[in-house]
Write a structure and sequence with these properties.
The complex is a heterodimer. Chain A contains no helices and eleven strands. Chain A starts with a strand and ends with a strand. In chain A, strands 2, 4, 5, 6, 9, 10 and 11 form a seven-stranded mixed beta sheet that branches. Chain A has a four-stranded antiparallel beta sheet with strand order 1-3-8-7, with no helix packed on it. By secondary structure, chain A is mainly β. By secondary structure, chain B is an all-beta fold. Chain B has no helices and eleven strands. In chain B, a hairpin with a 6-residue loop joins strand 9 and strand 10. Chain B is globular, with a radius of gyration of 14 Å. Classes of the chains: A mainly beta, B mainly beta. Chains A and B meet through strand 5, strand 9 and strand 10 of A and strand 4, strand 5 and strand 10 of B.
């Protein structure tokens, strides 16, 4: 089973809202990732968690706050977002950091 | 930072034709990955390459890890309509100063198959 699940599939939020994106995998992977993808562009790395510890933060604004409650779950907390933050947010996991990454289906986020 | 040059940017082919796309870089990578992405979906892993010179097949797909570790190609044989999508190469290497690994993506090749 190489499945990464993400909820919700779609999210519309106002600039004053607080929401969270969720990601789950049950493959026993110890590295998990958040990416942001704009239309017609490749995914851009936001955060990397390795063994439940944040190992890479790609200078992401503080209105995005990641959380890794356990080895199977990854959350992305959103607060005071801007319209330019509208994008497809992808979660991925890998056995450890230097192995292939498996992506979830993504959450389509629209900020109004 | 590292950059990957992926070509072609787009291609239109007849069903049944073979397809070839490649990625090059001035940087060395220790892993090459190839993904396919359909609109509104996440990238799906097609092939993973871990050793320089490695040639790996997955059904009608064949990919190679260049001997210099700076390039990779993906071939699709006998294309079918469901091959339509965007193909991304991605190279993995150590993230500078952090002891962690990161993926660098090419800009993608948009494949259209004419029935």
């Amino acid at each position: 089973d190489t499945e990464v699940t993400q909820t919700p599939k779609h999210l519309v939020m106002g600039m004053t809202n607080k929401k969270s994106l969720k990601c789950e995998q049950h493959m026993g992977h110890r590295a998990m990732y958040w990416y942001k993808q704009k239309a017609k562009k490749p995914p851009e790395l936001m955060f990397v968690y390795s063994y439940e510890k944040l190992s890479i933060n790609e200078s992401v604004p503080s209105r995005f706050s990641p959380e890794c409650p356990n080895s199977s779950l990854l959350n992305l907390h959103l607060h005071a977002l801007q319209p330019e933050d509208s994008a497809l947010y992808l979660c991925a996991s890998s056995p450890t950091e230097n192995y292939e990454q498996y992506f979830g289906p993504g959450t389509r986020l629209t900020v109004t | 930072g590292q950059q990957l040059n992926q070509s072609p940017q787009s291609m239109f082919i007849q069903e049944g034709e073979d397809v070839s796309m490649n990625c090059t870089s001035s940087s060395i990578f220790n892993t090459w990955l190839w993904y396919k992405q359909d609109p509104g979906e996440g990238p799906v892993l097609l092939i993973a390459l871990y050793k320089a010179g490695e040639l790996t097949s997955n059904g009608r797909l064949t990919a190679q890890f260049g001997i210099t570790r700076k390039d990779s190609f993906l071939n699709i044989s006998a294309s079918i309509p469901s091959d339509v999508g965007i193909y991304f190469c991605a190279g993995q290497t150590l993230y500078s100063g952090a002891g962690s690994y990161q993926l660098t993506f090419g800009k993608g090749t948009k494949l259209s198959v004419i029935p």
